[in-house]
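Pilot study result, target chain (354 residues):
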Amino acid sequence: LVPTMDTYQQADFVLSKVEQLYDQGVDYDQIAILYRAHFHAMELQIELSRRGMPFVITSGLRFFEQAHVKDLVAQLRFVINPKDRTAFYRFICLLPKVGEKTAAKLLKLVEKQADNLQKNIFDVFADPSIFSKVPADAKEDWLSVAETLKNIHILSQSATPAQVVEGAICGWYQDYLRRTYENWPRREEDLESLVDFATKQQNLAEMLSQLVLLSSESGDRVVQEGEKCLRLSTIHQSKGLEYPHVFIIGLADGLFPGKRAIDGESDLEEERRLFYVATTRAEKSLHMIYPMLSSQKGTPVRLMQSRFLKELPETKYERLNTHSSFGRGSSRSPGWNQYGSGGGYGGGYGRRSY
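Predicted structure:
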C-alpha cells in the first residue's frame, strides 16, 4: 500500500518502480496499471510520454486524444489564435446544420464585421448581422458559443490558466455534453482534470504548447510489431485478464469509489466488486497507490484512502512510506527488496506484497 503526496508523485512512483522491474529483467508487457476512470491516468500518461516509455491503452484512446478533450482544447486554441480555422471548425461544426463550408462562411462574416466596426472578433459573434446568417437549428447554440468565447477571451487577459480552463468547461460545451452523452459525468471529470494540469502552467499559451506536444508524442508514436508495452487499462476492461505485476492508482475516496457512489447516486457495491476485480489481476506483485492531495478546480483538497483499502486486513499488505524511501532504487519495502535481492524472480513473494 503506497500513499503519495499527489497524483504527480503517484505517477513518478509508479514509473520508478516499473523501471526497477524492467532493469531486473521484467518485460513491459508483464506490467499493468489499472484505474477506475480515464482521467485518473492523465498525469501518468503525461509522464510516460515525457520518458518515452512504450505503452498501450487497452480501454480506448489516450487521454489527450479523446474527442471531448480535443473539443474543449480547440476552443482555447481559437481564443489564443483566431486564425486557427482548424480549431474553430472542430467545435463549431458540433452545432446542428453547421458543416465546414457554413462554418467558413460564418467565420469570414465575423472577421469582416470585426474589421468594419474596429472591434475584437469575440465581440461581434452575436452581432445581429452575423446571427441572421446562422442556420435556424443552430441559433441558440451559436449565442451560447459566442458568450463562451467572449468569456474565455476576457479571462485569458488576466486570469490564471486554470481559471480560463474552468471558464471554458462551464460554458456552452458543458450544456452540449450533458444533452449529447449519457456518460457526461465521466467526460466532465476528464475535463475537470485539465484544470489541475493548467495550474502547473505559467500561461495559457504555454499550456496549449504542452498539450500539442503531449498529443503529438502520444498520437504520432506507432507501436512496432512485437514491441513490448506497458498495459494501461480501466478496471472494467481488465476483467478476465491477469498480469505478473499490477499497479492500481487513484485509490482514494472520491476517486475510487467515486463521489457519485459515495453520495448514493450510483452503485457502491458495484465499485466494491470492481476493487475486487482489480486486486485479483496480479500474479506476483500488487501495488495499491493513493494520492493524499488532489486539485479540484485549482484548489488543493485533502484525500482519504479508499474505504475499500480499510476493509483489507492489515496483516495482508505492507505499507511503503514514499517520503522516506521514494525514488528509484531506494525503496525500503521488505517485499520489494526481497523481490530484487535474490537474483531470481518470486523469491520475496512467499507473502504477497500489496
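One observation from the pilot: The beta strands are 2-4, 31-35, 55-57, 230-234, 243-248, 282-291, 293-296, 299-302. A full batch analysis is planned for the follow-on phase.
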